[in-house]
Amino acid sequence: MNEQFRAAVAAVYGHDPARRQAANIWLDAFSRTPEAWGCALSLLEHTSNASVEQRFFAANLLASKTRSDWAGLDPQQRSQLAEAFGTTLRNMLLPPGALSPSAAVSLEPVLLERVARLAAAAAALGGLATAERHLTLAQELATAAQPMLGSAAAPEANRSAGEALLRCALLVLQQLAEEAEALDSVRRKALLAGPDGLGGAGGLAAQRPGVVALTRDVVASAAGWGTSVGSPGVSFPLLLSAVRCLSAWVWLDESGYADGGLSSGALQAMSPGLLPSALSLLALPPSGPPTPSPLATSQAALREQQHATSLYAAVSELAAELLGSGSRTAAAAAGGEAAEVAAAAAAVDVLISIGRPLATAAAAERAAEAAAAGGGSGNGGEVGAALAALLAWSRVAVAVAERNAGGLTSGPGERAVQLADCVVGAWSACPDCREVAEVCADYFLAVNTVPTAERNPALTAPLYSALLPHVLRAVSYPAGFQDWETEVEEDEEAFHWFREQQAADLLETIWGQCRTAMVSQLVAEATSTGPGGAAAAATTAHGGGGGARGPHVSDWRRVEAALFCLRAVNVPVKAAAMGGRAGALDNAQAAATSAELQALLGRLFGDICSPSGRVAGLLVVPWVCLAVSRLIGEYAAWLGKTQDAPLQAAMGLLIHALSVPTAAPAAAQAFRNCCVRGADKLTSDLRVLTALATAAMAVVAPPPPPGGGAGAAVLLGLEERSAVAEGLSRLASGLPAEAAVDAACGLIAPCVSRAQSVAAAAAAAGGPLSTATLAALAAELGLMTAVVRFLEPPPGPHRIPPTSSSSSPSLRPGAAAAAEDHPALRALQVAWPVLSAVAGEPQCQTDPGVVEALAELYKCSLMSTKLAGRPLLPPLIGAMLGVLRVRPHAAVLECLAAVVELFGEVAHSGETRNAQIAALDGCIQMMGALMANLSAQQQASSGAPAATATSPFPSDCSASELAAAFFSLTDRYLVFARDLLMTGQGAAALPALLEWVCDVIVSMREREPVAAALSFLSHLLSAAARLAAEETSGGVGGSGGDGATAAETRARLDALFGRCGPRLVHSLLVCGTDTCPPQLMRPLAGCLMGLITLADAGTVAAPPPGVVSEPPPISPGDSELRRGLLGWLLGSWQLPPLAGLIQRGWLGTGGEHALLFTSLMLRGHYLQADIARAFATAPGAVAPTIAAANMRQLPRGRLDALVTDFFRLTRGEADADVLLAYEL
Where is this region: Disordered (predicted)? Predict the structure, then answer.
């Protein structure tokens, strides 16, 4: 077996794909067998002569089996394996015989790390004795390293070998601690605290002081600060191993709750000065010439830089864990909170002492990098060692500030001011480095959590005012930026995340401290013209923002950054400028602030909207145009409410920005915002508004060319066009009645003209309509929808106009008279010829894009006009049914559902009633065809013979989408037009509807169709139950459409549920056990409860209302539902697929859990004797409970919980104990 295993592993690393695949399959199966332990161990031995790759494979296999199969081994096997793994590692590190320096240096790091990890995992899992043997190996390695390290005069080979052995010792210790921490809480506590559990005195935690002492000695010697372990000299790999080992042992938690290990105060008490010494490692520069790391060319220099960078990151992580907000507090014996404060103070002293030198080194490194990049060389975007050290230092400063911002910033001491100055210096040293900006921003956000009154005065406005130039630089686009497709140094997502999240938060903080001074500085930055003026700025802008790195007064990037900063603080600035949320200036200071901000904003927007302004001169830059559009959108409220604000000029600028692809989306949204916020100002002058609307519509719906067709395609997307049209339609609704009608017609006329032009060009070309033509028609319909959606009628009473039987809603005098009152109806009169032509065109009826747009337009028209839209119903329903017959679409059903919701209550007679009945009939025919098609497909998939070949259902929507839309429609009939569905032709379709409900809930797993079907069924059951209470009334809902009385309708429903009840009960149970989404269990419980409630209403011996008594017995006079429900429930569990659950034993012996669930659900509704009698012959039948329990029905909330828990049980997601509580 060993040979076969070795051959398979060799094949895995071979070059034959077929053999490699076969070997992988065999090894995957073999790795699960007990023989795999011995074969892998044999291959891992150094005497096996296997390659490093093959030995690595064996170590991986053993590590995987150790984690997965350890619990299944007996104690002897565990001990033997742990001993074998430890011996293998020992033989690698301390081979028998004399240890030569070359052997120690030549150890393969990857294989060594994997074998050490394997041995550490087994040692941790094996218990305290095994772990202590593993510790002994580390001690032996450290001891063996001592003679090789010697002194400064020791040979280089011996020193390298000694360092290698010492790194191995630290690696063994580190991995043992990591594996111990990864154990479950019980094992971890037993291993770390020992059998007695007394504070770790007898466990692995007792060894922590010795490990900490070893790492302290290593840090001191490797950093050149002492000679405890060896001669002085900086060794970054050894320092990295020591810091990682220290981190692992610091984080060890013997409490068993995994809430952290040592605190900074406890570490300080255990090893005074260790944490400051570790922080001082950040100031160690890599060895070699003073050339900055990005210019290092030799492999040795690059490795040195990588080790240094890794060391800085490890120190930062260790210090952040010890000093940050998530760290523990020292125990009282170790000094408590006072020890933590002292440790933090010592750390701050070190940070202050090394902060400025680190910033200076990082600045020099960045300058050298820039010079090298200009000369064609560089580091390829990698972070240099000096920058890595500065980043690590900054993260530690943030951790200290987040842990104790109050203690750091309060009081008269200068330590906090000095640290803040160091952080500012770090940001200044690398102004173009986003990583530094992110960390520094976090620091100042943490400082700002302390109330201003409690801070040192130097940490208030003066500090934050000095930050603003750095923020401006950090949020600026990269130098030479053209677009994101050509930008290679900056990541677009990270750049925008920093601007919109961290920078925005910091800017609000700066506003809180500086207020008007900040706005004044930003406005000056955006509007002040430097050397060369606006013309020079525009010249720079035409170059796309190119040029050398570094700020320049005419650089568009600085202007764009200032505009962004002003946008980021728009909420507090607007509130202060406009007098707060209530518009009141409650004191003189607030009034003065408001006046100053009004002047500053006036200056800003005057410059933006003035052709001679600096910002206006930069609008040729797409990114400045984008920033201006966003700024106008955010300050729309100020522009709309301030008397002298240039609102109209700003909107003209936005119309121009619509032609700039980069800025168009933001400009469209800003235009809509201005229309909403500035409606009073814009509607005060009708001529100005007309000119504005004409200019805007010329952009979003330009006139078609003389030859017809779409012409020069509109560059704007439909979303942007719709936003502009929506804003203008909102303005039209605010005009007087006659002007509103004219404005509405003027807005929709360009869309109609373009649609007519497209259709005419297609007709002239002949042949079928192209995809582009259909897409153009859909876009114009979408734009018409945006126009109509928010057109509101003028104020005053409205009459309900009569319906129209013609194909156009404008042909009857009543409709025309009503249309004069509503701008939407007049706009639809303009568009109706085009809409009718589109709705009647066969190719348009089969295009999903056109159908969706047309249905959405019709629906929005109804929602806008409401009851005034009755003239639309006959032609609208006729058009939608025409589409439904050709190619059904869910959007059509949603439109018809809106008709029912709006007009169901007035559909008692006349054409409105007839139109809705026709809509219901058409939808029922469509659903019948769909369900027949699905049934045929299921038969074909199951192999059953079919009468005809099955073809796909002719629809662009899925069956689940159509089913969801259909049941949503019928649900609306039940809620808003109940008599249309429960009497006459609608009642004749109810049996088919119930059959389709059953089909949908057992065959579809999507949430939408199941939710719609359950909602329809629930409302149908509720309506039937209400009818039982209304039996003495004269009709259904007050006026039965066909003269049926409540008693007749109830009898019809009783017969319906008596006929469909068995399948309905079975389908609900199947749905709960299989197809029902978990979030729909409550609606499913509602349907089951609805059936039980309707059965209760079918008894002839019901007690008087309000009287609590025993449930009446089943009698021959009861409804068929009440008489049959018990048998249907029992029979359902004997039919597939429910019977399979009982056969597999998932529901207890003989289905006892199912019978218990049924009896609990029916408790209080049926006599327990009737329940016991019905289930007497069933296996696992439940015995009747006490009489008092028979009378208590489960409350609705408990019933919902019972249904959910039981069906979780049937799905294997819970055990039988979940039902116990419901028996109490």
Answer: 794-816
Is 671:727 a contact under the CB 8 Å cutoff? yes
What CA–CA distance (Å, rounded) separates 865 from 822? 7
Contacts of 1038 (CB under 8 A, 6+ apart): none
Instruction: Report residue 540 as tokens.
Output: 């720079």
Q: How far is CA 744 from CA 512, 740, 860, in A?
A: 45, 6, 15
3-state secondary structure of 234: strand
For 1062, the token pair is 């068995």
Helices (H) and strands (E) in the chain, counts: 58, 0
* CA gap 535, 966 in Å, rounded: 63
Tell me the backbone φ, ψ of residue 730, rounded to 5 degrees. Answer: -65, -40
Residue 367 CB contacts under 8 Å (≥ 6 apart), including other chains:
none
Question: Strand, helix or coil at 554?
Answer: coil
Residue 813: partners with Cβ closer than 8 Å, 6 or more residues away: none
CA dihedral 235, 237, 239, 243 (to 10 degrees): 180
Q: Give which of 1028, 1019, 1010 is closest to 1072, Cα–Cα.
A: 1010
φ/ψ (deg, to 5) at 97: 95, -170
C-alpha to C-alpha distance for 113 and 59, rounded to whole angstroms: 10
Say which residues have a Cβ less than 8 Å from residue 540's Cβ, sequence separation at least 6: 546, 547, 552, 554, 555, 556
What are the beta bridge partners of residue 1166? 1163
Residue type, 775: A
Distance CA 844, CA 855 (A): 12
For the whole model, what pTM was predicted? 0.83
Amino acid at 167: R
Cα-Cα-Cα-Cα dihedral of 399, 400, 405, 411, to 10°? -160
For residue 384, how many other CB atoms are within 10 A of its CB?
25
| Distance (Å) of CA 802 to CA 815, 817, 819, 826 | 7, 10, 11, 16
- Per the CB < 8 A criterion, the answer to whether 1164 and 1194 are in contact is yes
Q: Which helix (H) or strand (E) holds 327?
A: none
Angle at the Cα of 339 (from 335 to 341), degrees rounded to 5? 150
Distance from C-alpha of 811 to C-alpha of 871, rounded to nearest angstrom: 10
- Overall residue count recorded for the chain in this entry: 1224
Is 776 in a helix, a strand, or coil? helix
Block mean pLDDT (10 aa), the chain, length 1224: 88 90 92 92 87 91 91 90 91 72 66 90 90 90 78 66 87 92 85 65 83 89 52 74 93 67 86 91 70 53 85 94 77 69 89 94 88 55 83 95 78 80 94 93 93 89 94 93 89 94 96 95 86 39 39 71 97 89 68 93 95 92 96 96 94 95 96 95 92 94 71 78 96 91 94 89 81 92 94 63 47 44 90 92 93 96 88 90 94 95 72 85 94 89 62 90 97 90 83 96 96 96 83 45 66 90 96 95 96 88 59 86 91 92 86 90 85 64 46 86 94 87 76
**230 phi and psi, to 5 degrees?**
-160, -170
Residue whose C-alpha is closest to residue 267's, from 197, 198, 342, 379: 342
Q: Mark 654-692 as b/e (b = at least 16 C-beta within 10 Å).
A: bbbbbebebbbbbbbbbbbbbbbbbbebbbeeeeebeeb
Instruction: Residue 863: name the closest of 885, 890, 895, 888 by CA.
Output: 895
- Which is nearest to 882 in space by CA: 835, 840, 838, 933? 840
| DSSP character at residue 1017 | H
Segment 253-274, tens digit of pLDDT: 776 555 567 888 888 888 998 9
> Are the CB atoms for 156 and 177 separated by under 8 Å?
no
Amino acid at 435: E
What is the DSSP secondary-structure string of 22-52? HHHHHHHHHTTSTHHHHHHHHHHSGGG---H
